Amino acid sequence: MTQQRSTRAAWGITALLFFFMMINFADKAIIGLAGVPIMTELNLTPKEFGLVGSSFFLLFSASAVVTGFIVNHVQSRWALFTMGLIWALVQFPMLGTVSIELLIACRIVLGAAEGPAYPIALHAAYQWFPDDQRALPGAVIAQGSALGVIIAVPVLSWIITHYNWHYAFGALGLAGLAWALVWGIVGKEGDAIHAVQERKVRALAKIPYRHLLFSPTNLASWCIYFGAYFGLALGLSWFTPFLVKGLGFSQDVAGKLTALPFVVGALVVMIGSWLSQVMMRFGASSTTARGTFSGLMAILGGCALIASPHAPDATSRIALMIAGTTLPSVSYTLVPVILAEIAPSSQRSAILAIASAVGTSAGIFAPYVMGSVVENAPSAIEGFNYGYTICGAVTLIGGTIGLLFLNPDAQKARFAQLTAVAAPTAQR
How far is CA 308 from CA 256, 268, 295, 392, in A? Predict the structure, then answer.
C-alpha cells in the first residue's frame, strides 16, 4: 500500500513538472512566433532580432550552473517555485509600450530564471524513481516542452492574429502564476524508498569534480547536447520567420506550421526513450541503449539539416528540417539519465545543471548567427540555406562525438575505483 501511494505521488509530481516544462517552452517559443510582428512594430533588422533571440540565453547557462550547486544543498521544490514565479512576472512588462532595450532586458531575466528549469525538474523527478525507471518519467517531463508549444502555438497565434503580440505575453504570465500557486501548495521532495536509501549513502566519498567534469562520457554529453540544442534554439527563434520571409507563407499559416516540429519531437522523444528502456530490459548495456542510440539519432538529424537546402520543394524541405531538429532531441532525456547514472546523488543536480548549461549555450550563438547570415546574404532564402547548413554541421559533429565517447558502463567502473576505498568507511 505504501509503495502504491509512493508510485501515485511520483507520477503526480511528474505531471506537475510536465506542466512546468509546458510553460517553460511556451515562454521560449513566443519570441519566434511573434517574430515578424515584433520586427515590424519595433523596426528591427534581422541581426537585431537575432540579438533579441540570443539575449534569452545570455545568463541561461550561468544560472543553470549556480542553481545546480545550490540545489545540492536545498530542496528542489523551492527552486522550482521561485523559477515559475519569475517567469510569470517578467512577462507583464510586455503589455505596455516596449522598446528593444526593454524586450532584451526581460528576455535576459526570463532566460536566467529558465536556465535551470530542465535539469532541476529532472533532479526532482529522479528522487522518486530508481535508475532503471528514470527514462520514461524523464521523457514525460521533456514532452511538456513539446506539448507546451503544440498547445500554446495555436492559442498564442490566435491572440497575435486577432489582437496583438503584447497580449500573448500577458497570457503566458497568467499561466505561470497559476502553476506557481499550485506547485507552492502541493509540490514536495521525493520520499520513495529508494530516495531514502540514496540519502543514507550521501556520506560516501564524493567524486572530485575534476574527474566528473572531464571524464570522456561527460565531455561527450556536452557536445551532443550542444549540437542538438543548436537546432532547437534556431527553430524557436527563426522557424516561423523562415516560413514567412523564406518560403512566403502567411503569418497565420506559418503559426500553425510552427507546431509541427514539436508534435514530431514529442513522438520521437517518447518512442526513443521507450525503446531505450526496452533495450535495457532485454539486456542491452547502458552504453548501447543510451549512448550509441543518442549518437546515431543526432548524426541522422545533422545529415537531414545539411540536406534540407537542396530539397526539391517546400514540403520536402520542411520535412527534412523537422527531422533534423527532432531526431537529436532523444539526447535531451537519455543524456541526463546517463549523467545521473554515473554521478553520485549528492552531486547529481550540479552535474545535470552544468551539462544543461553547456548544451543550451548553443542558444547564445544560433539565433544571432542565423540573423547575421540572413542579413548579409544576397537574398533571405540564401541566408536561411547557409544558416541551416551550419546548424546541420554542428549537430552532426556533436552526434559523432556522442557516438564515439558516451560510455557510461566504462565510466561507472572507473569511478567505482575512485570511491572503493572511501565507501566502506563511510558506511560504518
Answer: 21, 19, 20, 9
**199: burial class by Cβ within 10 Å (0-12, 13-18, 19+)?**
middle
Does the model's pTM come out above 0.85? no
d(Cα 36, Cα 3) in Å, to the nearest integer? 52
Query: DSSP code of 291?
Result: I
Each of the 428 residues of the chain gets a pLDDT tens digit; together they read 455 556 777 888 888 899 898 888 788 778 877 888 888 889 888 888 888 887 887 888 788 888 878 887 778 888 899 988 998 898 898 888 888 889 989 999 998 888 888 888 888 888 888 766 776 787 788 777 767 667 777 888 888 888 888 898 999 899 999 999 999 888 777 664 444 445 444 444 578 888 888 999 999 999 999 999 999 888 877 888 888 888 888 877 887 787 788 788 878 888 998 899 889 889 999 999 999 999 999 999 999 999 999 999 999 999 999 999 999 999 988 998 899 888 887 787 788 888 888 888 888 888 888 888 888 889 889 999 999 999 999 999 999 999 999 999 999 888 877 766 554 544 44
Nearest 5°: the CA angle 56, 58, 61 is 100
CB-based contact 165:32 (threshold 8 Å):
no
Let me know the angle formed at the C-alpha of 144 by 170 and 62, rounded to the nearest 5 degrees.
Answer: 75
Helix axis angle for 100-114 and 35-42, nearest 10°, is 150
Q: Which three cell numbers stand for residue 265?
A: 519531437
Structural domains of the chain in order of their starting residue, each with its CATH number: 2-187+207-420 (1.20.1250.20)
Q: How many residues does the chain have?
A: 428
Exposure class string for 341-365: b at 16+ Cβ within 10 A, else e: bbbbbbbbbbbbbbbbbbbbbbbbb
